[in-house]
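SUBJECT: A protein chain and its fold
Encoding: whole-number codes for local backbone shapes
RECORD BEGINS BELOW THIS LINE
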Amino acid sequence: MALVTGAASGIGHATVRRLARAGAHLVLADVNATGTAAVADSINDTYGEGRALAVPTDVTDETLVRRVFREAAVAYGGVDIVVNNAGLVTAQAVEDTTLAEWQRLHDVLSTGYFLVAREAVRLWQEQGSGGSLVFVGSKNALAAGTEIAAYSAAKAAELHLARCLAEESGPHGIRVNSVCPDAVIEGSELWSEDLRQERARNYGIKAEDLEAFYRDRTALKVNITPDDVAEAILFFALPQSAKTTGAVLTVDGGIRAAYVR
């Protein structure tokens, strides 16, 4: 049984579909209640009633995070896999970054991931069964860039949180690993027109050339899709990675500055 945050679109949606194909029952958590319900309905239509449950959730709200875990336990008897994937992106020069914007990014990407991870660890300790916790990080957690400091710092905090949890929770049979993709534009609600325009301006290109720019800067000359990331998440979720924890798997086509050392 898998609980996925940020499940309404992009990487989260692709992960839900991939886990469903692998046989998982699912709890879908997202602040987008309508989108989450639509994804759950699609899974249930395809795989049978009861395979997916949508629970509107804001990961920055401690009460709502606790509720989604309670509902998962009641509906399916427990949780085996948690994918920490709620997302938010803004980009601006540091001198133009407001305290409110900095705090909003850290609320979702750092504190929100902590709240979800904490409830997962609590539940797995109570179950006594262990579990797999997968953080969806970012290339920006590993490689510095310009005009995206607030987002990158929040993602870096998230990445190190995952490593600390791997060390602390290992004796309980809990594995914690991270997947770090780069520039997943396809199907993502995060890539607004404003964000596209800002990143294109930062790189000195036209917005319509952004995907080609991201492709051409990789060693493999590829764009990254939600399905690519979902496959990496599946690896960490399932028993084939049973002896792996504290790891970082990049899904970025090869970005030299983000090679894990």
Q: What stands out?
A: The first helix runs from residue 10 to 21. The radius of gyration is 18 Å. The chain has one domain: 2-184+224-250.
